[in-house]
Amino acid sequence: MSTLELRALGRSYGTHAVVTGFDQKIASGEFVSFLGPSGCGKTTTLRMIAGLDEPTSGEVEIGGRLVSAPARGVFVAPEERRLGMVFQSYALWPHMTVGENVGYPLKLRGVSRQERDAAAARMLELVHLGGLGGRQPHQLSGGQQQRVALARALVMEPEVLLLDEPLSNLDAQLREELRFEIKDLQRRLGVTVVFVTHDQSEAMAMSDRIIVMREGRIRQVGPPAELYGHPADLFVAGFLGLANVLEGVVESSGSESCRVRLSGLAGQPVVDCRGAVAAGTRADIVIRPEHFEVAPGETTGLVSGKVTRVTFLGDRVDCRVASGGAELRLALAAGSAPCLGDTLALRARDAVAFAQGPRNG
Ligand SMILES: Nc1ncnc2c1ncn2[C@@H]1O[C@H](COP(=O)(O)OP(=O)(O)O)[C@@H](O)[C@H]1O
Ligand SMILES: [Mg+2]
Fold it and tell me: Which residues make up the CATH 2.40.50.140 domain(s) of the chain?
């Protein structure tokens, strides 16, 4: 296992900057995800780490060894970087057996047939495919093929494992199963992992830290719970988990909090928010669905609304409430579910306020 350091990494195509000023240290044995919408530069950044793409600026260091630094004329070839990679497409060689696929990186290094077979068998055991080395790839399911790709990526005992949306082609149940397997494997081997995904629940379930990206830049970095609870801006708040985004006018402001009167909602909707936004200015307010609670018998500081949809989800109920011109989304405990058409008085247990800056989407 190994540390990974990216310093002011940038990649442009002509005048089009695809990745800009990407600065990050990843600790040895850490599991870090790049999370962001399609086209935000995740794959490009991963390919620069792998040496499959050359940065136009900045530096990449793996385990303290400089591997990419265009300004200093440094470029270490991908196969010299001690990395394992798995992509969305399994990219197995169809004419080789499963075992030969896994052993192939060793073959390139001139390792003997016998040693290769032993290592491949060991790796297949590790990904719960023991005994299937003699099969052809097409005889395996999608999930099994992706496990083979994982085994092949691990056979060289890489310092860093790079995974680019490896679960995106699998069905929901398998995806969740493999999440745990990859996580478990990472813990047992202690390998440093960079995991690329546009799926926020995947990133939250697996990562020690998530790097949220947008338009080639880092927007926020932190452990999942921190990003969820303390999003740096509306984009991060909306990208991680569900969020009601409302507007309001700040009535009073403290050093780390403010009280906001929400616009466009029925009732007397005043909420106490985390985040200091100047009194008298407009603010964007984020309220998570699980932070609304039904407050019977209260009259002040409440949002009132009518239930327009109730969806039973087992442990909780997903509830839509129309209030003023807005539709709110609530996650309520299954036992306390309202009925369609009920009028509710709602209180927000937690809310975050952001100053309304110049809009950039
Ligand atoms: N070879 C290329 N030439 C020009 N633009 C490219 C090339 N490769 C990627 N891009 C652009 O770089 C941006 C980021 O792409 P990518 O890193 O693949 O995003 P992600 O993996 O986050 O979906 C996209 O706008 C894409 O069109
Ligand atoms: Mg990509």
Answer: 243-355
User: Rounded distance, CA 351 to CA 348, Å?
Assistant: 7
Please give the CATH number for the structural domain made up of 243-355.
Answer: 2.40.50.140
Residue nearest ligand 1's atom 4 by CA:
13
Q: Count CB-CB contacts under 10 A for residue 253.
A: 20
Cα 310 to averaged position of ligand 2 atoms, centre (Å): 36
Residue written as token pair 């478990």? 184
Task: Look at residue 145 and give its three-state secondary structure.
Answer: helix
- Nearest bound ligand to the CA of residue 217: 1
pLDDT for 358 equals 59
Q: Are 281 and 250 in contact (CB under 8 A)?
A: yes
Whole-number Å distance between alpha carbons of 33 and 345: 39
Residue 359, pLDDT > 70, answer no
Average pLDDT over residues 126-152: 92
pLDDT at 360: 46
Q: Is the pLDDT of residue 113 over 90?
A: yes
Residue ranges, CATH 3.40.50.300, the chain: 4-235
Strands 270-274 and 257-262 turn out to be: antiparallel
**pTM of the full predicted structure?**
0.91
| pLDDT tens, residue by residue, 228-274 | 999 999 999 999 999 999 999 999 999 999 999 999 999 989 999 99
Q: State the CATH architecture for 4-235.
A: 3-Layer(aba) Sandwich (3.40)
Which ligand is closest to the CA of 44, given by its number?
1
**pLDDT bucket at 361, cuts 50 / 70 / 90:** very low
